[in-house]
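One-letter codes give the sequence; the integers encode the fold. A sample entry reads:
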Amino acid sequence: MPVGGFVVSVLPDDAERLKNELALVDGVEVYGWDEKGNIVVVIEAETSDLMEELVEKLKRIDGVLTVGLAYLHFEDEVDKIERGEIKPEAFGRRKGRE
């Protein structure tokens, strides 16, 4: 299960609304924010592909300026890949592009 820490940048006037909206997304937990519009979230997903989908979902929320990765940890996904249980797409790679 990948776990990633992200900084979601928003305009300061939108921070209160957006931290509440981000907290409603399944798999996303808001850990803190500051007066400059930086919201710290942790995303947990079953696979890195699902994590990427969640990140893209956050980027599409009205008022989100950027979603920046701070750290990424793969708890058991590497073991599953080694056993051949899953075959992930390359993280950050778009379908149809080589």
Summary: Strands lie at 2-10, 28-33, 38-44, 64-74. DSSP finds three helices and four strands in the chain.
